[in-house]
Amino acid sequence: MKLDVLNIEGQSTGRSVDLSPEVFGVEPNEHAVYLAVKQYNANQRQGTHSAKERNAVAGSTKKLKKQKGTGTARAGDIKNPIFRGGGRIFGPRPRNYGFKLNKKLKQLARKSALSSKAGSGQIVILEDFTLEQPKTSEFVSVLNNLKLETGKVLLVTSDYDRTLVLSGRNIPGTKVMQAKDISTYDVLDAGKVVLSESAVESITEMLTK
């Protein structure tokens, strides 16, 4: 698949990029995509939830009343979970929700996501560029020239570009990241994926190792 390379004015440069069929032309594997997105969402969870159980609640351990003869249920101490202020039964404890996925499966998921975007015409190739200084208005102008002023946009560069990251971080729905950091979720979440020329090479090399 060949795509024209555009400049920041939104015009064709006369060059084209041949997208590797091994990365941008595979048959999407829905289950691999599902697992990768599930792992991404699981890793976003802090897992710091916690509740005090009976052993952690402050209170006397003195027996409240005699065992028999009261006509009511037997009770041990004030920390009993059935009493107000008592411990919680099987309360949540801090935990890590993350889980492991094999490297090849994660690669397949990213290939599937990129192939899906390429097949639906949602990938734009942009020539390598940068800004002299962080300027949100200039970044917005580039998006307007590419007719990407609405919807979510993912701009992928080959290397970390601090100027572009700072310029785009205040624009709702816009994310700038380097090729090695993209995830299946990032690709699928974006309406349009804008790849720099060098980013295409980096992604292809990364996913064909």
Provide the descriptors you would attach to this structure in a database record.
single chain, 209 residues, alpha/beta, Ribosomal Protein L4, Chain: A, 2 domains, 6-stranded mixed beta sheet, 33% helix, 15% strand, elongated
What does this structure look like?
The protein is elongated, with a radius of gyration of 27 Å. Helix 2 packs across helix 3 and helix 4 crosses helix 5. Helices cover 33% and strands 15% of the residues. Strand 4, helix 5 and strand 5 form a beta-alpha-beta unit. Strands 2-1-3-6-4-5 form a 6-stranded mixed sheet. It starts with a strand and ends with a helix. The chain has 209 residues and is α/β, with parallel strands linked by helices. The chain has 7 helices and 6 strands, in the order ββαααβαβαβαβα.
Short structural summary:
The chain is α/β, with parallel strands linked by helices and 209 residues long. It contains 7 helices and 6 strands, in the order ββαααβαβαβαβα. The protein has a 6-stranded mixed beta sheet.
